[in-house]
Specification:
The chain has a domain of about 80 residues. It has 3 helices and 8 strands, in the order ααββββββαββ. A hairpin with a 6-residue loop joins strand 5 and strand 6. The strands form 2 sheets. It has a 5-stranded mixed beta sheet with strand order 3-1-8-5-6, with no helix packed on it. The protein has a 3-stranded antiparallel beta sheet with strand order 2-4-7. By secondary structure, it is an alpha+beta fold. The termini are far apart. Helices cover about 25% and strands about 30% of the residues.
């Protein structure tokens, strides 16, 4: 069996044909945008992506355990969930070093040499609020 497309009938079909004829006569035929073919799951995904992304808070401070001066900035920042948060860490003395206490104070993390040289600490793909405590230590005595 072949499928037949249903044509508008009755009053609605008459109005649609009359409107098209009027627009054609006035030279105002407008090209209709192409319809995008999507599945129900694609619609759900697109709707979810369009939803508001929650913001998360990252705080940074100098730990009272520091034995050398320094700063961690910004002290607080709000970032969209899934993005990165960058904290600038600046030792206050020459040759001072820093050790970042991990997110939420669970353990100590020695920053990578490149991060230490750049003076940065990055939370990648943030999915929760975090608190960073930076510990500054004086240079080793020689």
């Amino acid at each position: 069996m072949s499928e037949q497309k249903k044509q508008p009938t009755g009053h609605a079909g008459h109005i649609a044909r009359r409107t098209f004829i009027k627009r054609a006569a006035l030279g105002a035929v407008l090209a209709a945008p192409a319809m995008e073919s999507v599945t129900k799951s694609e619609i759900l995904v697109k709707s979810a992506l369009a939803a508001t992304v929650p913001n998360l808070t990252i705080t940074a401070s100098v730990s009272p355990q520091s034995t050398a001066p320094g700063t961690a900035t910004p002290a607080s920042q709000t970032v969209p969930q899934g993005s990165d948060a960058l904290i600038t860490v600046t030792p206050g003395g020459p040759n001072s070093e820093w050790v970042a206490k991990s997110a939420d104070g669970e353990s100590f993390v020695a920053p990578a040499a490149a991060d230490r040289a750049a003076g940065t600490f990055v939370f990648h793909h943030v999915t929760a609020n975090h608190d960073l405590k930076v510990i500054f230590i004086p240079p080793p005595e020689t």
